[in-house]
Amino acid sequence: MSGEAMGPGDVVRLTLPASTAFVGVARSLAAGLATRLDFDLDHVEDLRLAVSEACSVVLPEALPGSDLGVTLLVGDGDLTVHITTTSTAAQAPPTDSFAWTVLNALADDVAVELAGGRLTVRLHFVATSDPQTFDTPAGAELS
Q1: Domains and CATH numbers, the chain
Q2: Which of 12, 35, 60, 62 is a Cys-bridge partner for 72, taking CB atoms 3.0 to 4.6 Å apart?
């Protein structure tokens, strides 16, 4: 199966213990998949950091012994990430925290949901097809 391209509709799921010790695994999975989908380096790093921040929102609300679910949904030029855990929280975490500010700065869209005893943060990223270019000032020589 090596060498097969991923495409719209593909889903990758990972279940980990709900512990900060496993956040790096979730980050690596998301970054690796974004790289495989030809996201540029800036978007890959934004995604990696956003997954960490999403975990920092979800993990404090996790029931002891529960799992951390990481689901990546491949779209047509985009990627959606769900970070979820079992929680007894009475309400979703506030969206005015520093972590939430960071998430909004990194992802194209962010949402949180508390339903059926599951707390989920959803991150949506759109890949850019425009490589970053730098203008050369008029009269400047490139060496």
Answers
A1: 11-126 (3.30.565.10)
A2: 12
Give, for 45, the enclosing helix (H) or strand (E).
Answer: helix 41-58
Beta bridge partners of 53: none
User: String of b and e for 61-87 (b: at least 16 CB within 10 Å)?
Assistant: bbeeebbbbbbbbbbeebbbbbbbbbb
Task: Specify the amino acid at residue 114.
Answer: L
Over the stretch 25-83, which tens digit does the pLDDT of each residue have?
999 999 999 999 999 999 999 999 999 999 999 999 999 999 999 999 999 989 999 99
In angstroms, what CA-CA distances link 60 with 57, 63, 64, 84, 128? 7, 9, 10, 12, 33
